[in-house]
Write a structure and sequence with these properties.
The complex is a heterodimer of chains A (119) and B (112).
Chain A: E1 4-7, E2 10-13, E3 19-25, E4 32-38, E5 45-51, E6 57-58, E7 67-73, E8 76-81, E9 90-97, E10 108-110, E11 114-118
Parallel strand pairs in A: 2-11
Antiparallel strand pairs in A: 1-3, 3-8, 4-5, 4-9, 5-6, 7-8, 9-10, 9-11
Chain B: E1 4-7, E2 10-14, E3 19-25, E4 30-38, E5 45-51, E6 56-59, E7 62-67, E8 72-77, E9 86-94, E10 99-102, E11 106-111
Parallel strand pairs in B: 2-11
Antiparallel strand pairs in B: 1-3, 3-8, 4-5, 4-9, 6-7, 7-8, 9-10, 9-11
Classes of the chains: A mainly beta (119), B mainly beta (112).
């Protein structure tokens, strides 16, 4: 099946620094990628929808200047957490939706997730 | 407001037993419904995807059903194995913009 590679899987950073997370679709093109955040024992919360070649669409309450998204190619989207604070510590997951003529069956494949710890 | 509710919240079963997880949704207009398995600290992995016209879909020991009239879906796991221990998430997509709504998940624990 299709594979989405997310890197790094774990990162620890100091408060005030920035962290970049990469999301790659390895064997398919993905015009659209999604970034999620998941707190312990909670469901995934959509942060933003990343569209290749255009600006990302952020969900209400998500600071676009803090969570910078770049979708420069059909196989790569990046999420940069700028000026990270301890409250940004979370599990971040990306998903890539396979470009498909039949949108009803367009599959979304998830990356392995990135555990971010800000100290 | 689009919502996806799952039950039970958590479940413990003996290895080898069957179980059924439930998903009720109010997402409209409906596009598709997917079941995912998420191991702790990992990204979700797709189990099944169903569109409006599909009532049942199987993937090995996993069988999903969909009743679009009552807006209910179930995921049946047969002959459970220890490796089935995970969270199972129901995800419903709406309309042409593919907005997705995640359920809160059912945490399944299979014990020897």
């Amino acid at each position: 099946g299709a594979v989405v590679s997310q890197h790094p899987s774990r990162v620890i950073c100091k408060s005030g620094t920035s962290v970049k997370i990469e999301c790659r679709s390895l064997d398919f093109q993905a015009t659209t990628m999604f970034w999620y955040r998941q707190f312990p024992k909670q469901s995934l919360m959509l942060m933003a929808t990343s569209n290749e070649g255009s600006k990302a669409t952020y969900e209400q309450g998500v600071e676009k200047d803090k969570f910078l998204i770049n979708h420069a190619s059909l196989t790569l989207s990046t999420l940069t957490v700028t000026s990270a604070h301890p409250e940004d510590s979370s599990f971040y997951i990306c998903s890539a939706r396979e470009d498909d003529y039949d949108n009803r069956r367009a599959e979304a494949f998830f990356g392995q997730g990135t555990r971010l710890t800000v100290v | 407001k689009n919502q996806v509710e799952q039950s039970p919240q958590s479940l413990i079963i003996l290895e080898g037993k069957n179980c059924t997880l439930q998903c009720n949704y109010t997402v409209s207009p409906f596009s598709n419904l997917r079941w995912y398995k998420q191991d702790t600290g990992r990204g979700p992995v797709s189990l099944t995807i169903m569109t409006f016209s599909e009532n049942t879909k199987s993937n090995g020991r996993y069988t999903a059903t969909l009743d679009a009239d009552t807006k209910q879906s179930s995921l049946h796991i047969t002959a459970s194995q220890l490796s089935d221990s995970a969270s199972y998430i129901c995800v419903v997509s709406a309309g042409g913009y593919q907005k997705v709504t995640f359920g809160t998940g059912t945490k399944l624990q299979v014990i020897p």
